[in-house]
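Class, carefully examine what follows:
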Amino acid sequence: MARTDPIWLDAQYNNRARVPEAPQILERWSNASALARAQSDCVLDIPYGTAASQTLDVFRTGAPDAPVFVFIHGGYWRALDKRDHSFVAPALVNAGAMVVVPNYALCPAASIEQITLQMAQAVAWTWRHAREHGGDPRRIVVGGHSAGGHLAAMLLNCRWPQLAPDLPGDLLRSALSISGLFELEPIRRTTFLAPDLHLTAASARRLSPALLPAPAGRLAAVVGGDESEEFLRQNRLIREAWGAAAVPVCEAVPGTNHFTVLHELADEKARLLRLARQWLGLAGQGADENNSHS
């Protein structure tokens, strides 16, 4: 069936409908995140901008000059919150990383362009303030899930000195997209998302990482092996668009759906966490960056 058929696209992209246990998974995320905040050395709700939505949480490790992992949550740019995703921090902190989890304004109150700019501002804050929390601003990796995976990929193309003159051009060298969205035209045609996202044909093009030049940095693109045809295609697409030099990792994680694939980032035995550790330059990497599965 044609990829432009809205009914087919809705079935492909409506993950809460595709995964019946999604409400229970999201509840577990919330509970695990509350526990993570209670048991971690963390500083919560730090402003990184002037808007009420522009706050972030910092999870600190005892290691000096720790690499920094900025995690951007998903929810199709219109749902969820950083507080639902604190659960990703402990395994990364235990591995020796400082973790930053930013919030952002949600559609339809904000546009995806505005959200992308907010995430650039959050990363800029991280570069300026990492040392205050034990982090090394020269080793920042951005990761994200779903819409957050889209935003992470967009940030690889950010022209940092144009955002602010104090920022270095090579501020961000590595990113990790988990179930990321790299072509937004199909999203624009969905009936369940379109009313909130207000994408036009032009803005969908501007905001599609696959239609941007390959960045100087590198992206790891990972998707759940049991996800829809479209999510699997999106993951392959960014490798095809940017090439293997910019996307050295392009993998599907067997036996995981759109939600459970994120659990792999919080599991100290999982390939995805090993990959994040490799991107962060931490010991015990155990990951082969040239491995590629689709």
Remarks:
- The mean pLDDT is 94.
